[in-house]
Design a protein that fits this description.
Structural class: alpha+beta
Radius of gyration: 21 Å
Number of strands: 12
Largest sheet: 10 strands, mixed
Order of helices and strands: HEHHHHHEEHEEEHEEHEEEHE
Distance between the termini: 21 Å
Shape: globular
């Protein structure tokens, strides 16, 4: 029998709560994915990095492997790249850490990755302030004619002070030595994850650059009908595979209680499309889907968040099937399952 992850047991205990045994609503776990510990993105917009890395980590647990990856390393590399662009664009391209999970995959391919233990999160890091500090250094370098090399040296000092000095350029794991790029390819091969979405303003079964604010690099998503999208999510979870989810949480139904629903009987392809075109739904958060629970006869999806263990139920929350049908902007699924 498959072992039930501890977080799902906690969710069931809280759902059954204070009722007497004969009054308890039946709870049924339909899918349960192993997860690494919940982390805290702190004062940052890096949910897309935490969600994508958390998805890769859970996928490796499903295979009997164990890796924990460093969001801070990717954040640092992304800042460094954007800082150079900011300098040469003469302030026209501000540094921002908003993005999509596709950008996290791109960063893995470009910059490699290191284990979490070698470059852990620093509690209390304010990435917004850090980006402003880097922009100020670029402005000083440009105004005083100090040049790119001076700017980069000052930026590295600021990044070291705020995030910590980078570890050695090689990664050692299970007796093997990797470069950062080799290690990244060992945990996530190129094109291993596919991005899916579901909107009718583009033809189904084609790929298009999704028109959302954080898709800054115009990454493409494969477009399928909503029922097919939900079926894909269910199939992956039921086979023990996580799904990286990006969607809208800017509504009053998110986070008010452990099981979040929306007051609508049916969410159709048309009603979902209307909400998107009216700009009522957008991409403002990313999490990992790690389970399915039947609660009071309805399906709920267990979401692993990146706001620390004090939020939700030890960092997890459940979103109803209707919630996902309405508010899912895109998902990333492992294509090698």
């Amino acid at each position: 029998m498959q072992r039930i992850p501890f977080f799902l047991l906690l969710l069931l205990l809280v759902a059954c709560g204070p009722h007497r045994q004969e009054e308890q609503p039946r709870q049924q776990i339909l899918a349960a994915v192993k997860t690494t510990p919940v982390r805290d993105q702190g004062n940052s917009s890096l949910c897309w990095v935490y969600a994508m890395l958390g998805t890769i980590e859970s996928e490796h647990l499903q295979r009997g492997d164990s890796v924990c990856l460093s969001p801070a390393f990717l954040a640092r590399r992304i800042i460094e790249r954007q800082a150079t662009d900011y300098y040469f664009s003469r302030q026209q391209h501000p540094i921002t850490l908003r993005g999509t999970a596709s950008m996290a995959l791109d960063a893995l391919r470009q910059d490699g990755i290191v284990p979490y233990d070698s470059y852990p999160d620093r509690p209390g890091t304010n990435y917004g302030v850090l980006c402003q500090q880097i922009e100020h250094l670029a402005d000083v370098a440009a105004a005083q004619g100090r040049g790119l090399q001076w700017f980069r040296e000052q930026m590295e000092e600021q990044l070291d002070e705020t995030l910590g000095a980078l570890p050695a350029p090689h990664v050692y794991m299970l007796g093997a030595e990797y470069t950062r790029g080799e290690f990244a390819r060992s945990v996530c091969a190129p094109h291993e994850y596919k991005a899916l979405t579901s909107f009718t303003h583009h033809p189904f079964y084609t790929s298009f650059a999704l028109e959302i604010p954080d898709n800054r690099y115009q990454d493409t998503f494969y477009n399928i009908p909503l029922d097919s999208l939900m079926a894909n999510i269910n199939r992956h979870l039921r086979h023990g595979h996580p799904v990286c989810w990006e969607g809208d949480i800017s509504n009053p139904y998110f986070g008010q209680k452990l099981f979040c629903d929306i007051p609508a009987k049916t969410i159709t392809q048309g009603s979902r499309q209307r909400a998107f075109e009216r700009l009522e739904t957008t991409d403002d958060h990313a999490m990992v889907i790690v389970g399915i629970i039947r609660h009071h006869g309805r399906l709920y999806y267990v979401m692993k968040n990146s706001w620390g263990t004090e939020w939700g139920r030890h960092g997890f929350i459940c979103l109803s099937e209707n919630y996902l049908r309405q508010n899912t902007i895109a998902v990333w699924e492992n294509g090698k399952k």
